[in-house]
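Appendix B. Worked example

We walk through a single record from start to finish. Start with the input: the chain for Receptor ligand binding region domain-containing protein, Periophthalmus magnuspinnatus, length 427.
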Amino acid sequence: FSSSLSSSSLLLPSLSSSFSSSSLLLFSSFSSSPLSSSSPLLLPPPPLSPPLSPPPSSLLFSPVCSQFSKGVYAIIGLYDRKTVNMLMSFCGALHVCFVTPSFPIETANQFVIQLRPELQDALVGVIDHYRWTKFVYMYSSDSGTSAESHKNWLVTSVNVETMTEASFLKVFQDLDKRKEGQIIIDCETDRLTGILKKIVDQGKNAKSYHYILANLGFLDIDLTDLRKGGANITGFQLVNNSEPEVMITLILFYYGPCRLQYTGALTYDGVKVMATAFQNLRKQRIDISRRGNAGECLANPPAPWGQGIDIQRALQQVRIDGLTGHIQFNEKGRRTNYTVSIMELAPSGPKKVGYWNEDEKYVTTASSIRGINDTYGLQNRTYIVTTILVSLCYRRKSTSRLKIEGQWDERREKGEKNRVTAFGFVL
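Next comes the structure step. The output line below is what the pipeline stores for this chain.
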């Protein structure tokens, strides 16, 4: 078993920024991960392929083959919708593992190890928690979770990649006419930031709107301007910033030129997964050295790497804790047994209100008593209310869905007219 292993990375212009944010620490952190007290396993800095430009289908072959020809044992990198199929074909044919922090995909390719957890079930859990049945679903075709296909919801789907300024305004005009304001935005952080800026510019960040951001980096997004209008904002957070390892890493990035986002944390964990897998292979004295032309994509026909199965199994069996929480993979190479925090944007700043995992589903952790400054609009929320039905003050409005109507006097000394409010409640 060699004392050093070759790794490689593949970058795309639209995705390389999230990868480079983590490259400052990735390989320096694990280049001396000890296999034992006497012999370290070295993970040298990866040979980076030049960023791929469109059309990727014609330019991807050479960069990928160049990595294989260098004798790499595994590849860590990013893909998009245009390149994912070709990358899967290469790895499946040559039995070379591809470890990726990119958006999860459905694939039968066992050589793809997906670091990013699936968000779809957690998103459905939050929608059910808020009892939404009607909402607008804005998505990007690159990463959308297709939440609109679930249950008996009435969903207006909008592809943000084809959305014009006019269609954007029409979405909110229709919502205002129906007096609705429930919106899900499902896309990567860069595109999400642009959409939120449009929302603020159009003044659609008022209390009458409730946004669910289907993105795993709630704390990575600047929500300062969106908060000023009082809009209700819910999202998801994968990285637990209170964990000691995360805090140390964040400090290191704070003094560097880049800010660590959840995509960088996933890449960081990807290298940790690779280091752990190869450590385990070495402890088991499994010989993974290449022989002949195995793994060469220019061979005719392509020659699969016989030891690729051993590496794939070692990667899939890794069980560690990383920056993104507990890391474990199922038989398809997808993340399992993970926890996602549910966040809300309070006037005092982001706060955790619950979490979701595969066993418990959605669990609320927020206290029912909010701080003095944490005032929220009544719209788009369901409250737990304890009261007594009194004919002069409250009445049952319907048998199928309870409503409560109350009246109170404000500033009686000024003789102002009574104000009326209505909000949904659960007994």
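Two observations about the output. The mean pLDDT is 75. The two ends are 65 Å apart (CA to CA).
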